[in-house]
Automatic annotation (TrEMBL):
ABC transmembrane type-1 domain ranges (all copies): 68-259
UniProt cross-references to Pfam families, sorted A to Z: BPD_transp_1
Coiled-coil regions listed: none
Topological type in the membrane: Multi-pass membrane protein
Location in or out of the cell: Cell membrane
Keywords tagged on the record: Cell membrane, Membrane, Transmembrane, Transmembrane helix, Transport
Protein name: Carbohydrate ABC transporter permease
Family: Belongs to the binding-protein-dependent transport system permease family.
Entry-linked PANTHER family: ABC TRANSPORTER PERMEASE PROTEIN MG189-RELATED-RELATED, SN-GLYCEROL-3-PHOSPHATE TRANSPORT SYSTEM PERMEASE PROTEIN UGPE
Length: 273
């Protein structure tokens, strides 16, 4: 009886959490199809008329087509580079580095504790020296650098817990470290690699603070910057503003839903032996 009541309480708590999470989400989606009168008159109701023109307005008048392309290029490039760097680094820290060399891994973990605000000023001046301010390449490299610590942490934990017998058997066949990594370890590391990819993509797609600092011109702005600018210029058109918010959410939602299972497995990998 007690177990049943506890289970019921947990279900109620979970339902409340889901409701609190989904209500603002659904409110934003329905508001994207309303005019200002409907938004303020019946915030939680469905639109009387589904106004698809709100999306046309934000895509054309708000220049969201340019922002969307910029965000996509930066996010995809940052994700691919982060995965390319962190996967072999995680393998090295998990399987090859021993003794005092492991201390370098803890330096990576220390970087994870630094807030973005702590590196914004030196990052700006460093990129300015290389003429990379107000360029998609510049912010991509910064996003890769900030994503490396968590990526190495995830992949290192996975590789650390893989049986060392796999490496020993391959070495007896004459395989070197690179061949062992490429042909044996990497195919097994799909879950953590995809978890790193999800983290990197979502972080790059939603990045605002670094984008404000480094992307100065209109043609290089990303979705978060464009949304903030659109809000300032069209503050009276809340329907179009919500349409821009929905457009900004779509890629993040799609990536997470497609990779959800691998993302969860990647986070759990290495946590339990």
């Amino acid at each position: 009886m007690r177990s049943s009541s506890v289970r019921t309480s947990l279900v109620v708590v979970v339902a409340l959490i889901v409701g609190v999470t989904l209500v603002p989400f659904m409110w934003a989606i329905t508001s994207a199809f309303k005019n200002d009168t409907e938004i303020f008159g019946d915030a939680l109701g469905l639109p009387g008329t589904w106004r698809w023109e709100n999306f046309v307005t934000v895509w054309t008048d708000g220049n969201f087509s340019t922002y969307f392309v910029n965000s996509a290029l930066i996010a995809v490039a940052a994700t691919l580079l982060t995965v390319a760097v962190t996967t072999p680094a995680g393998y090295v820290f998990g399987k090859l580095v021993t003794g005092r060399g492991r201390n370098l891994f803890y330096v990576y973990l220390l970087v994870m504790t630094l807030p973005v605000e702590a590196i914004m000023v030196p990052t700006f001046y460093q990129l300015r020296e290389f003429s990379l301010v107000d360029s998609r390449l510049g912010i991509t490299l910064v996003l890769v650098a900030t994503g490396i610590p968590i990526g190495v942490f995830i992949t290192r934990n996975f590789f650390r817990d893989l049986p060392s017998e796999l490496m020993e058997s391959a070495r007896t066949e004459g395989a070197g470290d690179w061949r062992i990594f490429h042909t044996i370890m990497l195919p097994l590391a799909k879950p953590p690699v995809l978890a790193v990819a999800v983290f990197s993509f979502l972080g790059a797609w939603n990045e605002y603070q670094l984008a404000v600092l480094l992307l100065l011109s209109e043609e290089n702005r990303t979705i978060p910057l464009g949304l903030a600018q659109f809000q300032g210029q069209h503050s009276a058109d809340y329907g179009a503003l919500f349409a821009g918010i929905v457009l900004a959410m779509i890629p993040s939602i799609v990536v997470y839903l497609v990779l959800q299972r691998s993302f969860t497995r990647g986070l759990v990998a290495g946590a339990l032996k």
